[in-house]
Amino acid sequence: MAHVEEKMTVERWPSHPETASLEGKNKLTGFWIFLGGETALFASLFATYLALKDHVPSEEHLKAEQLFHLPLAFVMTMLLLTSSLTSVYAMYHMKNYDFKKMITWIVITILLGLCFLGLEIYEFVEYVHQGHTFRSSAFGSAFYFLVGTHGLHVLIGLGWATLLVIRNMKRGLSVYNAAKFNTFSLYWHFIDVVWVFIFTVVYLLGVLG
């Protein structure tokens, strides 16, 4: 059955549009279940990294404290945390039935995410040039698996947000797509939280030894 979107007015717009329909409630429930699986995935990757981070072939091989650039990782962290804040602004305007401002803040979120991803790619290229590759050591494999998996999630989130913007530019806001925008925002917050743990466990503790 084709979905029929109901046109809304500011006065009729619900205070929680993301859960105003049964479909929205089901999306939210399903997404929390999905995040439970994602949490288990990253927990296993963190455990693997902590177990293997000191496993390098020889003393000459670069270790975390010699390899990681904390200022660069800090800039990446600020970009991603700022993008989380801009996604909050987007959801604020969604709840106030302001489609244009919501889209504006989502686009800003996408741009910040692209900057983060660009810096992460630059970082990986630098490490490879220094001999720190996926196959160079157990430390290298664990690092690229963990940070690379997070980077893949960022890429998926950027593609998701871009498609949402493109598909709904002419549709405006409805209870139907409000649930979709809200689900993306929750996903984006999740990958931001995961990065905070990566910054702390991998970069900060790595540099501090």
From TrEMBL:
GO terms for molecular function: cytochrome-c oxidase activity. It is found in: Cell membrane. Keywords: Cell membrane, Membrane, Transmembrane, Transmembrane helix. The chain crosses the membrane at residues 31-52, 72-91, 103-122, 142-166, 186-206. It holds the Pfam family COX3. GO terms for cellular component: plasma membrane. It is a multi-pass membrane protein. GO terms for biological process: aerobic electron transport chain. Residues 30-207 form the Heme-copper oxidase subunit III family profile domain. It catalyses: 2 a quinol + O2 = 2 a quinone + 2 H2O. Belongs to the cytochrome c oxidase subunit 3 family. Catalyzes quinol oxidation with the concomitant reduction of oxygen to water. This is Probable quinol oxidase subunit 3. It comes from Macrococcus brunensis.
